[in-house]
Amino acid sequence: MTASGAANVFSGMVGGVSVSLHRLAIDGYGETTGFSGDAGFTARPVQGLFLAGSCRGLFSSSPTPGGRGIVPRTLSAAAGICPLQGVTLSAGASVHQYCGEEFSFASSVEPFPGIQLAASVQTPPVRMGFSLGISVLPAVLQYGYATHPDLPSGHSACLAWGGGGFAPEPFGSATPSLEGTP
Fold first, then answer.
1. What DSSP string describes 2-38?
2. Which regions of the chain are under pLDDT 70?
3. How far apart are CA 49 and CA 80, in angstroms?
4. Residues 95-147: pLDDT tens digits?
């Protein structure tokens, strides 16, 4: 369960924070409950280009006697383009507190207004993710599915409510849009 908020930092940039309650359970490994906090930003320095950065696990409860947080701190940065209306391509890199770096590539398409399909690949180890988003503003419902080579595949669902969203505009478009929550 996550509570989050975001606001325009200045024209073309949105910053946000979140606090999450986690219930983690992996067959054969055990289960635990804890909380964490994250921070991030999304920016559009020029039309058609977007940047993002985040710190996941900025603070995290420690469920183990060794003091490892329930969410390892992860620093991430990404850049993407919007070559056509409703299409994005992005690449990113992350550094994890306990397991090193990973790289990601993602693409999304909006085949109809309010319907978004996305796919991503992360490595190492190779993992794939897919999502479907349905937007009837001010609500957005999203379902995601992700694979992992060593763990069972995962499912996620999100219901968001708000007055804004990340809506990249293609290169050369007349009206930029980056308002509200990312």
1. EEEEEEEEETTEEEEEEEEEEEEEETTTEEEEEEEEE
2. 63-67, 163-166, 173-182
3. 6
4. 988 778 999 999 999 999 889 999 999 988 889 999 999 988 788 899 999 99
Query: Which residues in 119-157 are b (16+ Cβ under 10 Å) and which e?
Result: ebebeeeebebebebebeeeebebebebeeeeeeeeeee
Spatial CA neighbour of 165 closest among 138, 133, 132, 142: 138
CA quadruple 159, 165, 171, 172: dihedral sign: positive
Name the CA dihedral angle for 37, 143, 149, 78, rounded to a multiple of 10 degrees: -60
* Preceding omega of 138 cis (within 30 degrees of 0): yes
**Paired tokens of 11:** 């024209």
What are 150-153's contacts with CB under 8 Å, separation 24+?
150/125, 151/26, 152/27
Largest CA distance in the chain: 56
